[in-house]
Amino acid sequence: MPEAFGRLDTDLQLREKILPLCRLKKGEIWEDPLSGHRVGVLDATRRQDVEQIFSKEKTALSVQDPPYNVAVGNENTENLFKMNLSEYMDFSQKWIENNLVVLGKNASLYVWLGADQKEHFQPLPDFMIMMRQFSELVSRSFITMRNQRGYGTQKNWMAVRQECLYYTKGNAYFDVNAEYTDIPKISGGTHFFK
Ligand SMILES: C[S@@+](CC[C@H](N)C(=O)[O-])C[C@H]1O[C@@H](n2cnc3c(N)ncnc32)[C@H](O)[C@@H]1O
């Protein structure tokens, strides 16, 4: 189905129109006066940005969804970029290091990543191996698997899988009683993995 609006990272005219309506500019942080939640337009690879939004606080839960190093819809933009793998790994290493600065003593880290089936499943295996250097993190689960089509037609089909890695630090709390999916496991003989 076609998108109702163009993509903000590729449709420059739309972007120009929308930017004046955005209350937050690059580098700014808004704090909800009621709850204290903070929203920022920041760079996860810059330690000072991450420290600024956290102040002195630490988190027990970090859920990350970085760019997957694939050209989404055949477009390569500043936001959803495709770079050479070693540059992508430098990028990943930086934001993971910054994440570790703000993870509490006992914490969970979830990372969504892509695996390009046409390029030896990059960057998923490279990312997993890179994560081995962080001895404070323990790998816990490889949660979901699905094919991601992304935008477009058969011409720009994305042969990309989308996966979620789960790591813990210290003695992270995990609610085993929480029901996290009610999708039927078997339907008409087909197994669903979601
Ligand atoms: C896979 S998308 C995440 C989409 C998001 N989970 C959603 O559902 O809308 C990756 C996002 O990372 C953002 N991004 C790219 N480089 C970044 C950086 N250095 N710091 C913070 N965010 C970045 C992109 O703008 C993009 O929105």
Task: Please give a structural write-up.
Helix 2 packs parallel to helix 3. This protein is α+β, with helices and mostly antiparallel strands and 194 residues long. Strands 3, 4, 5, 6 and 7 form a 5-stranded mixed β-sheet that branches. The chain has a two-stranded antiparallel ribbon with strand order 1-2. A two-stranded antiparallel sheet has the order 8-9. The protein has 4 helices and 9 strands; from the N terminus they run αββαβαββαββββ. Mean pLDDT is 87; it is low at 187-194. The chain has 2 domains: 1-41, no CATH class; 58-191, Rossmann fold. The structure holds S-adenosylmethionine.
Which overall shape is indicated by the principal axes computed on the Cα atoms?
Answer: globular
Proportion of helical residues: 10-25%
The level 1 CATH classification of the largest domain is Alpha Beta
Distance N terminus to C terminus?
Answer: 21 Å
Tally of discrete structural domains: 2
Structural class: alpha+beta
Mean pLDDT: 87
CATH architectural arrangement of the largest domain? 3-Layer(aba) Sandwich
Work out the radius of gyration.
19 Å
